[in-house]
Amino acid sequence: MSAAVTLPAWAKINLALDILRKRDDGYHDLCMVMQSISLCDALTVEERGTGFSLQSDGFTVPAGKKSLEERACDAFFAALGRKAPALNVFLKKNVPAYAGLGGGSADVAALLRYLRRTFAPEMTDAKLSEIGLSIGSDVPFCLRGGTAQAEGRGEVLTDLTPLPDCHIILVKPDFDIPTPELFARVRVSDLRERPDISAMCRALSAGDLAGVCRAVRNVFEEVLPEEERRTVDALKARLVSRGALAAAMSGSGSTVFGIFNEIDTAVPALDALAHEGAKCFLAAPVSREQVQNS
Q1: What is the pLDDT along the chain (294 residues), one digit of tens a residue?
Q2: CATH classification of the domain holding 48
Q3: FRET pair for 142, CA 20 to 30 Å: which of 107, 132, 228, 293?
Q4: Residues 89 and 182 in one domain
């Protein structure tokens, strides 16, 4: 039996998201700029009990189904060719579900980092990423962390110059958007509001926060149902009117984020939106080193 270890599971936002084409395997090829943020779940792992057990204060796994975390554990030890030890996992949820923030993928990534560090420190990043991809498309980025361009399903990653220091307000509307439902609405040839990802990468290289913000865009916003798009557009407008340099929906939604240069602007904006009844969070960029060392 080992002492319990508590790990952060860092959420992410998509600074830019483009959908390039639908693939023969049913997935879509994407091009994105992804950023780890300080909003995180807390994953506590302890070697005790029998088999794999998961408790959470934020969700319940449906009867007869395995959680993402248990599937990740099974895949990890299958790759090692050995039986998994007894593990008890407790998950304290802070990241909203079905929110475009990669909460489930971040939890899986935190567990996989723990498993490699504890049981197979010789495992390569590529192998760990392959295991992660078998669980979810965002897991490879959540394993890597920081600021990165993501292509393919999201598993082809290129490190980028870190996002300059800034403050990020996250606003979660009262509706959820399951990712498969939104992908089903996509007609790639009809997409018009595409991000200039090359311009964003150049701005990151130059440390130009304003330039990054000018390139912030998410094509998923185009395919939202009408009522949901009105809500997202209204939240973006509120954030910009209160000083955000840019605002967009993250991932497949429904969270909207705003990027602020000054904390003295971000905090009053957060307070105002919370006073209006919005579910809000204040976050900051997290580096690849922070993620790797967590």
Answers
A1: 568 999 999 999 999 999 999 888 888 999 999 999 999 999 999 988 778 989 888 666 666 788 999 999 999 999 999 999 999 999 999 999 889 999 999 999 999 999 999 999 999 999 999 999 999 999 999 999 999 999 999 999 999 999 999 999 999 998 887 888 888 888 888 888 899 999 999 999 999 999 999 999 999 999 999 999 999 999 999 999 999 999 999 999 899 999 999 999 999 999 999 988 889 999 999 999 999 988
A2: 3.30.230.10
A3: 228
A4: no
Helices (H), 120-225: 125-133, 139-144, 179-183, 197-205, 209-214
Which DSSP letter does residue 291 get? Answer: H
CB 105 within 8 A of CB 10: no
DSSP state of 25: T
Task: Please identify, among 103, 136, 159, the residue that sits at the C-terminal boundary of a domain.
Answer: 159
Which helix (H) or strand (E) segment holds residue 36: the answer is: strand 28-46
Query: 250 near 14, Cβ under 8 Å?
Result: yes
Q: Identify whether residues 9 and 154 lie together within a single domain.
A: yes
Residue 10's alpha-carbon distances to 45, 218, 272, in angstroms, are: 16, 21, 26
Q: Identify whether residues 250 and 118 lie together within a single domain.
A: no
Q: Which residues are catalytic?
A: 12, 138
Amino acid residing at 67: S
Identify the CATH number of the domain in which residue 213 sits. Answer: 3.30.70.890
Neighbours of 184 (CB within 10 A): 9
Question: What's the domain range around 177?
Answer: 167-283
Number of domains in the chain: 2
Beta strands in the chain (DSSP E): 5-22, 28-46, 52-56, 87-92, 147-152, 156-159, 167-172, 217-218, 246-249, 256-260, 279-283
Residue 289, number of CB atoms within 10 A of its CB: 11
